[in-house]
Amino acid sequence: MAHDDRNADGGYWAKAEGSELCETLKTREQRWYTFAERRGYIDMWLSMLAEYYGIQPSALLGFDAASIALEGDQGELVRFRVNEVRSYIRLAVTNATKQRPAFEASTTSSESISERQVDLCESVMEAIYRKWYGETKERRLVERGELFATMWTWLQWDEEGGEVIERPVILPDGTVTPETDSEPTPSIVAKVLPPWQVITDPTTEFEDELLWVIVRERRSRWEMLEQYGYEIDEESGERFETPELYQQIMSANAHQSTGYEALFGFDDGEVSDDDIIVSHFYHKACPAMPKGRYVCCIDEAVCVDEGHDGGLPALRYQPAEFVGSALGYSDSWDLVVLNQMATQLTSDIATNLSTFGRQSIVADKGTEFSEEQLANGMYLIRKPTGADPPAALQLAEVAAGGQWFLSWIDKKMQNVSGQNSVTRGDPSSNIKSGTMAALFASIAEDYQQGRQAALDEHREKVANMMLDLIRGKAPEFLVLEMAGQHQRTAIKEFRADLLRPMRRVRMKPVPASIRSRAGQIEVANFLKDVPGAIQTPEQAIEIITTGQVTPLYRASRAALERIRWENEKLAAGEVTVQEVPGPDIPEQIDPMTGQTIAPAQPGPPMEITPECPVLPTDNPFLHVPEHVAELSTPEALNDPKVRLAVLAHIRWHMTTYQDIPPTLAALLKFPPPAAVAPMTTPTSEENIPASAMKSGKLTEKAADTGIGLPEPAKPPEPTLNN
Questions:
Q1: C-alpha distances in angstroms, 578 versus 564, 605, 631, 680?
Q2: How confident is the model at residue 681 (pLDDT cuts 50, 70, 90)?
Q3: How far apart are CA 180 and CA 207, in angstroms?
Q4: Distances (CA, A) of 492 to 173, 351, 637
Q5: Which end of the chain is more exposed for a tag (fewer CB within 10 A), N or C?
Q6: Looking at residue 2, what DSSP letter applies?
């Protein structure tokens, strides 16, 4: 059925004003609910709720899985409810959320920041995510995503929603007084919402193609009345009612809202009359709506109508997509029919056992016993000669097919969920080693990669939306709780402009092989045999408990980042070459006589690159090959300035390494520099010891070098020191 999407003026419906827009939004909501009901989504959501919580699917009341029910005309049927769906979903949620997210910062191409700043930005971003989203909301998102196939995260900026901090009072002249003043800090409000509270075009399958979204929020009538129902006169300061808004808020009724009966009707009697539905309409900037739009409306009254820059603040999470629908699919839905059949078979078996579980005796007529005798424990029964003895009638015996079917259902549920006996904590007897257990756990983790990828993508979207909110609306400082020395958390203030060079953040993926505890132990066992990989017990514990191997290569990564930064400056021609005095040549002493051969003198000049300093702690075995690689590019070879700067920088590394103190080289595990022959001066009489001059016995080699040496196989000439 075609719909007319034009407003009263024949234009785009999203440009309608006032009550006309409110009515249009209600129409959009009604279309969404009609689509969800026609496609069977609402029935599926109610069915998943019933199976997950073990309650009656018809009314979503009671807890059938916690008690035994009797059904039938005379209560002859036993209803034995099985709830395996919950255990499978909760294990899937635990596997998906057990690794804390780690983010990697990407900076703008025009700004280059240090490795320390990058690490700090990443730590701040992780603290922001943990504070305003965190593990609790993540678990809620994934858990309900398995039930409803689609979940949303709605992000808002609240100017006064953060911690209240004490700041010193500053006088107009800039004097800081000892007095303090309480000041609320801003925060990001993140709400995890089910699919029926976020309305979109239900046929738009891909999130990046969505132009608009309606967020339905249940709020207190009195809270909204205080926020929008009154105005304050600027001159007198008196407060008076806003006629239209006040009446609309007072008359609004959540029970009459679109879709309420279908989705909230099961707890209709528990909903307070104070509750009303507030609709938030967002339209992102596009050619049809160049400045974007945000409208907040209650019933038929518009509370806020303003432009909206940026993307849609509602972010979608789907463990799996459904072709042609924006409402997605959940793999856990495939467990429902298996669980229902397990409940049916178990109930049939329980009914049979409860009805025929007490043995019935079959005996020929004339056998001498009575029920009273059996009840009294009689053990002697007289029977006619030649008659068969009494026998028990096995009416309660379970058919072999039923037992096989229950076993098949259990295996099928493991196959559908991608879990196995190891991940469910009951490994089979043939799994006898940690390596084999790690293999089975890794197989299960690989199966969960679709769900994990969906969560990681959502984490990244949420983190980048938070980053955009902070860069656009944050004040000068942010108050965050971060881990400090010895991993102790503390409340700290950070400058908001610290995050401005960050263009976006992305998730640091954790391989599936180390998501499980068995896999983490295997990785630790492997790395302990790699020379230099694990140097402290703390590093091994970090791998086993978190699966993070970043601390193992942090130092080498920082060094490579430094080299990359130097190469970028060298290749860009931003490095100059300066000639400075070289290190002094030390005084040369004759080891035989102890007399001065050559006095200390200034060394030859050397070239340095001030924009890329060389420190004694720089590892030349990392730096020099990377700098040489920079010279291999045609651009560097054809640019004399770049070529000379790189060569001068390499020579500076050589000189610094040659002069490194032995103790520092040992601490940094550098190989000792090769011995270099001392610099000599031309031979002259003043450089030759007087005893050697008198004896006239200088070898040709000694005369050439200026060092007095005796001729071979002869004892040294006596000196004053001897």
A1: 22, 10, 20, 26
A2: very low
A3: 47
A4: 27, 64, 49
A5: N
A6: -
Alpha-carbon span 302 to 17, nearest angstrom: 9
Phi-psi region of 344 (alpha: psi -120 to 50; beta: other; left: phi over 0): alpha
Which residues make beta-bridge pairs with 188?
Answer: 157
Q: Which two tokens stand for residue 695?
A: 């004896």
What's the mean pLDDT in 395-421?
81
Taking the CA atoms of the chain, what radius of gyration do you get in angstroms? 40
644-663 pLDDT, tens digit per residue, is 999 999 999 998 998 888 88
CB 481 within 8 A of CB 491: yes
Give the separation between CA 58 and CA 63, rounded to whole angstroms.
13
> Exposed e or buried b for every residue in 215-252, given b needs 16+ CB within 10 A?
bbbebebeebbeebbeeeeeeeeeeeebeebbebbeeb
Which residues are CB-neighbours of 436 under 8 A, at least 6 positions away?
none
**Would you say the pTM of this structure is higher than 0.85?**
no
The b-or-e profile of 97-135 (16+ CB within 10 A means b, else e) is bebebbbebebeeeeebebebbbbbbbbbbbbbbbbbee
Tell me phi and psi for residue 193, to 5 degrees.
-120, 145
Answer for the pair 434, 526: CB distance below 8 angstroms, yes or no.
no
Q: What DSSP letter does each residue of 237-289 carry, written as one string?
A: --EEE-HHHHHHHHH--GGGSTTHHHHHGGGGGGS-TTEEEEEEEEE--BTTB
Residue 69 token pair: 């029910």
Round to the nearest angstrom and report the end-to-end CA distance of the chain.
118
**β-strands 275-283, 293-298 pairing:** antiparallel
Q: Which three-class secondary structure state does DSSP give residue 183?
A: strand
Tokens coding 258: 């679109």
- Concatenating the DSSP letter of every residue in 526-574 gives HHTTSTTT--SHHHHHHHHHH---HHHHHHHHHHHHHHHHHHHHHHTT-
Q: Do residues 719 and 691 make contact, with C-beta atoms less than 8 angstroms apart?
A: yes
Relative orientation angle of helices 517-527 and 434-447, to the nearest 10 degrees: 120
Q: What is the DSSP annotation of 324-379?
A: TEEEEE-GGGHHHHHHHHHHHHHHHHHHHHHHH-S-EEE--TT-B--HHHHHTT--
Contact partners, residue 255, CB within 8 Å, separation at least 6: 261, 268, 271
- DSSP assignment letter at 382: B
